[in-house]
């Protein structure tokens, strides 16, 4: 009995000491990030000196070189480039879109952005009647007779009653991604889509789209939510309203680019890799500040915090800037393929690609007990107002590691403002709050520390 | 045994039904707030049509009339004005502050705001040597000989390592509030204080201050954090650097104003009052958007949500716009005094006065088991990402009800951006996010609903 009590006492005390020590490390990490953090200065350079970084652009190339030098400057053990071929789509001259000759208001130019990957309109543009639909079922019901020769207008809004705006986005984005593909099957000449935001404003949101590999490719663009509301109301009164669309975009041959990988070698289990990353490419509008410059600089900052605080991780840490998340995922695919080929063991991968607002938690995908293990550390995070450690899906880039048994962790910041900015000219450096960015980096660094200490 | 199981089963099922029903009401409240909410439109009017609303100003009077009409328009059972005399301080012509003839950079004008309640400088201003201190202990140690005839410069920054910025503010604001009072005791001719923010920028932050009731009153002003850093670095190299300060502010005779009170009568316990409020006055800079126009429109919105959804509260609900929180608290004092005189029973009072960012929870002061009772409802709030239901202090206005046994609840939004804006020209309508504002109103409405159903 006394022995059992003794053992119990020892266990409790070792847990207590362990926890205290982890909490103390967490406190050091937050203090360093909030007082000497470098994520904000890094992001300022990436956003205001380099700018938006669509795959294949000169800015994407500059960002590759910059992030490599940045990680070398911080003295990571190894910094390398991983070659990958990426799509090279260019927007060309500004788009032009007009509601034509409506009975109520005459003609009205509306804010528009081509979707990434769209083909151009013929020179001079397309002018056609408009068919508004809310979803693909409506499209199918209307059929070829109603659609042929027309512009299909997808106008289902994001559901504002969902608390996490990402869920609202997820419930609407099929219109943007697959709208042109399906409309083309019914003979439409173009597709326009309501911008993916709960805001009612004049800012169009671009984003990825896909075509059928065979068949006609029709131009596709997003119009602002105010423009979508206007067009919809005009169509209700007058179904003959026409729409004019001019896109000048073009897909050039694939071009060579790189993932950028920084590494700190693990002292005890160097073969077990803890990855933290974001994507270095962005859309070609704004600065790609929240999406995903912020996630990149946070990932670099996580490893820098280890260096600055002299923490030697037991497992190997990698900061990975994935290339081409926005329009191809080629960087993520290449990274996962090479990891598999080399037999690398990524025990866990964390991605910050949901904006860099105040950290709220992590969304975790694990086929084993990874979620439960991470949830046990929740008390450490609660000291920093981070409560949501829940089942989730990970992130677009890291999910390519899913079939290698890697536990996938999506960093979850506050979501309310993200889709005000996402894929727009408004996603600029000034929209990022320094403390929120730093708190996110520190939150991830603490998780990386715990994972590198205890594994999964 | 079977009877016990039966009773247990009945208890469990009634709890389950009760919870489900409360959750369903919560869902309705959030849906209404996010789809047909009126807080944002109200705030736009209050901020951009009326503007900043310092006690005694014409704008404060306009805000009283506007909020009364607004609540009448929504059909609350009773809307009334509660007369209260308030201080009437005016800023006068713009302040002017200059670092004078430093050896390193010559003279440099710096951003400055008089503190609320400060006396003016003599015509032409004050020019004097500067003594920098971090706290009152340093001031005392320096003593009259070192301070006499000089300008005392309080330069202790907010602690950036604290996660809740309110705590950082609380740890520094004594310099602003009491700096002039203490400096005057040692013969200083003026006091300047580093602005109360963790940012390093050019925006001065005003705020309240107090004088000794007898003795000399010296002018007091806040300079921007960048200016404070500059002045401090110049003083390190050259202790003879002088500072020139011109303030044109003035305290006029007290003037009549009002608290504005809207009420929905309780159907079962009309004598038990559940109060939700904010303060209608603001500083005379910016729009007073986050501080505290947002809290006012959220409070009105809480009662409007009950009307819109046809929910008849069992207890009486009051939305109270307190007057004069910023520089006197006279509205809160009057409200509490009248409540006491009339024998009114405020079972709980909720205040939104910490900005209108994404809701994180409530900080609760209760001498009984109020905190524990409210914490039992936490699962309902977690559906809306609201986790922090913790011990707290309430709010400045509602705290005047403390000695009447009222449970005090401070609404807690995310704190990271608040002190970027607090008491500055930057606290404008465009800094408020519509969804964040609406989520806050809905979160408080759900708590008000539960309190009105179950009491405390």
Account of the protein in words:
The structure is a homodimer of 456-residue chains. Chain A has helices spanning 2-36, 39-50, 58-73, 136-147, 165-170, 174-185, 225-237, 289-309, 330-342, 370-375, 378-382, 418-421, 434-454, and strands spanning 78-90, 96-102, 106-109, 112-114, 126-133, 151-154, 190-194, 220-223, 242-246, 250-264, 269-279, 315-322, 345-351, 359-365, 388-391, 407-413. Helices cover 39% and strands 25% of the residues of chain A. In chain A, the strands form two sheets. Chain A has an eight-stranded mixed sheet, sandwiched between helices. In chain A, strands 3-2-9-5-6-7-8-4 form an eight-stranded mixed sheet, sandwiched between helices. Chain A is built from 13 helices and 16 strands. The longest helix of chain A has 35 residues, at 2-36. In chain A, helix 4 (136-147) packs parallel to helix 6 (174-185). Chain A has two domains: 25-86 and 254-454, Zn peptidases (Aminopeptidase, 3-Layer(aba) Sandwich); 93-251, Glucose Oxidase, domain 1, CATH 3.50.30.30. The model of chain A is unreliable at 5-20 (pLDDT under 50). Chain A is an alpha/beta fold and 456 residues long. In chain A, a hairpin with a 3-residue loop joins strand 2 (96-102) and strand 3. At the A-B interface, helix 1 and helix 13 of A face helix 1 and helix 13 of B.
């Amino acid at each position: 009995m006394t022995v059992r009590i003794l053992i119990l006492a020892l266990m409790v005390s070792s847990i207590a000491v362990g926890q205290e020590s982890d909490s103390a490390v967490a406190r050091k990490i937050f203090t360093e990030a909030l007082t000497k953090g470098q994520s904000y200065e890094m992001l300022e350079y990436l956003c205001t000196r380099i700018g938006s970084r669509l795959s294949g652009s000169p800015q994407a190339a500059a960002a590759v070189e910059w992030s490599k030098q940045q990680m070398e400057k911080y003295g990571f053990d190894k910094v390398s480039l991983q070659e990958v071929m990426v799509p090279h789509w260019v927007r060309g001259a500004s788009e032009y879109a007009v509601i034509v000759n409506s009975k109520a208001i005459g003609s009205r130019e509306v804010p528009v952005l081509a979707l990434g990957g769209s083909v151009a309109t013929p020179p001079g543009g397309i002018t056609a009647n408009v068919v508004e639909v809310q979803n693909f079922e409506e499209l199918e019901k209307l059929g070829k007779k109603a659609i042929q020769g027309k512009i299909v207008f997808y106008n289902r809004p994001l559901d504002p009653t969902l608390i996490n705006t990402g869920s609202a986005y997820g419930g609407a984005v099929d219109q943007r991604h697959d709208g042109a593909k399906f409309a083309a099957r019914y003979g439409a000449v173009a597709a326009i889509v309501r911008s993916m935001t709960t805001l009612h404003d004049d800012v169009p949101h671009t984003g990825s789209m896909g075509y059928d590999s065979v068949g006609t490719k029709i131009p596709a663009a997003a119009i602002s939510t105010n423009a979508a509301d206007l067009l919809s109301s005009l169509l209700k009164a007058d179904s003959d309203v026409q729409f004019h669309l001019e896109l000048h975009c073009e897909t050039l041959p694939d071009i060579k680019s790189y993932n950028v990988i920084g590494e700190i070698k693990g002292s005890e289990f160097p073969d077990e890799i803890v990855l933290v990353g974001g994507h270095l490419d962005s859309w070609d509008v704004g600065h790609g500040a929240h999406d995903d410059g912020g996630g990149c600089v946070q990932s670099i900052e996580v490893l820098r915090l280890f260096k600055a605080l002299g923490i030697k991780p037991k497992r190997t840490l990698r900061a990975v800037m994935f290339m081409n998340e926005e329009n191809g995922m080629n960087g993520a695919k290449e990274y996962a393929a090479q990891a598999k080929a080399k037999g690398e063991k990524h025990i866990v991968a964390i991605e910050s690609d949901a904006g860099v607002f105040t950290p709220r938690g992590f969304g975790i995908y694990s086929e084993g007990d990874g979620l439960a293990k991470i949830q046990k550390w929740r008390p450490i995070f609660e000291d920093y107002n981070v409560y949501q450690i829940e089942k989730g899906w990970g992130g677009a880039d890291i999910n390519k590691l899913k079939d290698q048994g890697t536990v996938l962790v999506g960093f979850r910041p506050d979501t309310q403002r993200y889709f005000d900015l996402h894929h727009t000219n408004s996603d600029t450096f000034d929209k990022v709050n320094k403390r929120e960015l730093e708190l996110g980096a520190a939150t991830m660094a603490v998780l990386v520390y715990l994972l590198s200490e205890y594994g999964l």
